[in-house]
Amino acid sequence: MSAPSAPLGLYVHWPYCARICPYCDFNVYRAKGRDTAPLLEAMLADLARWREITGPRDLVSVHFGGGTPSLMEPAQIEAVLETAGRLFGLAPGAEIGLEANPAEKARFAGIRAAGVERLSLGVQALDDESLARLGRDHGTAGALEAMAAAQALFPRVSIDLIYAREGQSVEAWEAELTRALGFGLDHLSLYQLTIEPGTAFAKRAERGALLAPPEETAAAMFEVTQTLTQAAGLDPYEISNHARGRAHQSRHNRLYWTGADWIGIGPGAHSRIGAPRTGGRLGASALDRPERYVEGAAKGTAQAMETISALEDAQERVLMGLRLAEGFDRAALRAATGHDVDEAEAQRFARQGLLVLEGERARLTRAGRLYADGLAVALAPGG
Fold first, then answer.
1. Exposed, middle or buried by CB within 10 Å (0-12, 13-18, 19+), for 357?
2. Could you tell me which residues come within 8 angstroms of residue 45 by beta carbon, excluding any fewer than 6 positions away?
3. CATH hierarchy code of domain 311-379
4. Using CB atoms within 10 A as the burial measure, which of 116, 151, 189, 225 is most buried?
């Protein structure tokens, strides 16, 4: 396992939502009529089990995701944080983040009082027609009110927006993003809409009832996104994430992108700890259905454990590391996994202007970022 001093994050998956958005492929369930007390108890028991596995390690971040964790009662959030602090300890300046629905702005004060300092607000769009198509339960006015409330309460606020929506033009996205940037936020997560298998959007697309913009339009929107955010002082430190300097970047998400360690609790949560060269990287997936997870936590079997091979770990590190503007260090990749990128492919992509090789560091160019996933598959060892 990793040394106790290595950074460790905690991901908390709250699976319940007031409604299921048609583009979402996460492990989510309707909240209506649910008794959430057994789930909270199971998550705390699962967290204690993780402490037995990892040993004493301070947490550098705790991130509440989902689902809609802003549906959690403040006392439930506080219970998770108190238990995490007691079992592990929170490192000085630990990032405590939570993903929130703008429709729940009345809960924000309680969430802040529970200990959350970074709020990620799922705005998704700034026009009512698009919000309705996306299945959101808030309108533009509600989103703006929620942003104002969040900025008044939380030291760090980010918003999510989705672009390349059905019927959206490049000009419309430019105007929408310009408006969002005008609120002076220090972090924006800007995602291109993808039609994920099994979602309601996928079913509509199969029937021809949902038409995404052409690839060239989506690419133009990506270029607009990079230009406008950089002009506003928000660096594109990751393909979809933009921050005003390192201090405002998502410290928790950087654990994923840099191949660091994190543990996950809650139905369907994933975990990665350790390194193959030092005894095997441990991966885990929590049971996905809330009822099964609750039963499993009572028996100590809520998590399905597996050993991630050095090759698999290297492939993950390349896939995630290329998402960062800084790329990844090949020497660190070799040290952690014993594997390196495909040199011939790396040189080919460099000649094509898609990849920059600077000493041991490999990073995508702005043009390369449009093809990040495909380039990662080609570059990864064994790909």
1. middle
2. 297, 298, 302
3. 1.10.10.920
4. 116
Alpha-carbon dihedral sign for residues 20, 74, 118, 145: positive
311 exposure class (CB count in 10 Å sphere: 0-12, 13-18, 19+): middle
Query: For the chain, what is the total number of helices (H) and then of strands (E)?
Result: 14, 17
Question: What are 215-273's pLDDT values in tens digits?
Answer: 999 999 999 999 999 999 999 999 999 999 999 999 999 999 999 999 999 999 999 99
Please list, in sequence order, all residues whose beta carbon lies within 8 angstroms of the beta carbon of residue 364, skipping any fewer than 6 positions away.
Answer: 322, 327, 354, 355, 356, 372, 375
Per-residue tokens: 344: 């011939």
- The whole model's pTM is what? 0.95
Sole residue written with tokens 């990128």: 341
Mention every residue, 6+ apart, whose C-beta is less than 8 A from residue 175: none
Residue 295 burial (C-beta neighbours within 10 Å; 0-12, 13-18, 19+)? middle
Greatest extent of the chain over all pairs of C-alpha atoms, in Å: 58
Domain 8-255 has CATH 3.20.20.70: yes
**Which 3-state string (H, E, C) describes 309-349?**
CHHHHHHHHHHHHCCECCCEEHHHHHHHHCCCCCHHHHHHH
What is the C-alpha to C-alpha distance for residues 221 and 101, in angstroms, rounded to an integer? 25
Question: Could you say which DSSP state residue 368 is in?
Answer: G
Q: Where are the domains of the chain?
A: 8-255, 311-379
Helices 343-351, 372-379: axis angle to 10 degrees equals: 140
> Using CA atoms, how far apart are residues 201 and 198, in angstroms rounded to an integer?
8
